[in-house]
Amino acid sequence: MNKQTVKDIDVRGQRVLVRCDFNVPLDGETITDDTRIVAALPTIRFLIDNGARVILASHFGRPKGEVNAKYSLDPVAKRLSELLGKPVEKAADSIGPAVQERVSLLADGDVLLLENVRFHKGEEKNDPELAKAFASLADVFVNDAFGTAHRAHASTAGIADYLPAVAGFLMEKEIDIMGRALEDPNRPFTAIIGGAKVSDKITVLENLLAKVDQLIIGGGMANTFLKAMGYNLGNSLVEEDKLPLAKELLDRAEKEGVMIFLPEDLVAASAFKADAETKVVDAETEGVPEGWMALDIGPKSMKTFGLVIARSNTVIWNGPMGVFEMEAFAKGTNSVAESVAKCQGTTIVGGGDSVAAVEKAGLAEKMTHVSTGGGASLEFLEGKALPGVVALKDK
């Protein structure tokens, strides 16, 4: 990564504002998954150990620029205190005289968490006045929120106009691992792309076709490709307007020598319901019957996908193979998760649904890297420049 990190600056006695991604799932007051908080700990601990005065900022939920107790970061402050083994105080706001005063009382190694930055309307609009107000609290800005790096917001990109800006360890790790996989992968390089719609991932597919050796396509988006090949899909989700594009991508893959693997068999259901009647159909010879819909990949596809993954040296996975929220249609996604976990090469899981599937299956530890950024990792795979990264100082 050609950006400066916290290791490139002297932080002792400095007020360091760290943008984290503490947008964690809550059940009442209880955090049900603290992965994102844990992911920020190496940067926070490094700053504490090196005598910085640490100010943490994050968004939480979608309060739409209004103060809303439901989206307060109180539970995060509590969990952070437990994880760090030291008190983490929480400010009542993220800017203003009271916050300024609270910051002025920080000693070296102290940690203060600001209130949800999205309580201010200007945050998502990247308002320069708000960015300036954030910047006035600190001497240095550290962006460690890869999950929001694709958004040009006041606390992710705007603030870097007014302070020296460097990357935290999580940001560095995300960019390094994903960047290396895309730019200089150990081959064979396989991408597994799933999810509902081709339209959501057109640019990802186009960008990856120039880089990978093998492309596995599953989930609802595979239906559009299968239909483009002339197969019957019954009542399955198909993007009719994307059929020409699917054909074009298949032709391009052939020209570029990229092997595309689509489902050979499908789990068809009589209705979009967890308890619907199901049967496995061969995609080419019989297709999905009229009135039925494909909701998962079948056993033959699981086996083929597993073999492709096993002989890969780099694997990037984004998107489920079926409607994995329903137990009856989660087998395909789980089988891919198991195959990726067993793969001996570099394995990267990015995107909310695939990450959820891997964590639910208890396989996250077996992956080389599980990305904390859903939309950000998707845009990274598309080859887009991420505003939160662009804003950081070059080495």
Automatic annotation (TrEMBL):
Q: Which UniProt keywords apply?
A: ATP-binding, Cytoplasm, Glycolysis, Kinase, Nucleotide-binding, Transferase
Signal peptide from the UniProt entry: none
Task: Give a single Pfam family match.
Answer: PGK
EC number in record: 2.7.2.3
Tell me if Transferase is a UniProt keyword of this record. Answer: yes
Keyword Glycoprotein annotated: no
Gene Ontology annotations of biological process type: gluconeogenesis; glycolytic process
PROSITE patterns annotated for this entry? PGLYCERATE_KINASE
Cite the binding residues for substrate.
D21, F22, N23, R36, H59, F60, G61, R62, R118, R151
Amino acids binding ATP: K201, E325, G351, G352, D353, S354
Cellular component terms per the entry's GO annotation: cytosol
Which reaction does this enzyme catalyse, per its entry?
(2R)-3-phosphoglycerate + ATP = (2R)-3-phospho-glyceroyl phosphate + ADP
Family annotation (InterPro entries): Phosphoglycerate_kinase, Phosphoglycerate_kinase_CS, Phosphoglycerate_kinase_N, Phosphoglycerate_kinase_sf
**Localization per Swiss-Prot or TrEMBL:** Cytoplasm
Give the record's subunit note. Answer: Monomer.
Its family remark reads: Belongs to the phosphoglycerate kinase family.
Could you identify this protein by its name? Phosphoglycerate kinase
Q: What is the lineage of its organism?
A: Bacteria, Bacillati, Bacillota, Bacilli, Bacillales
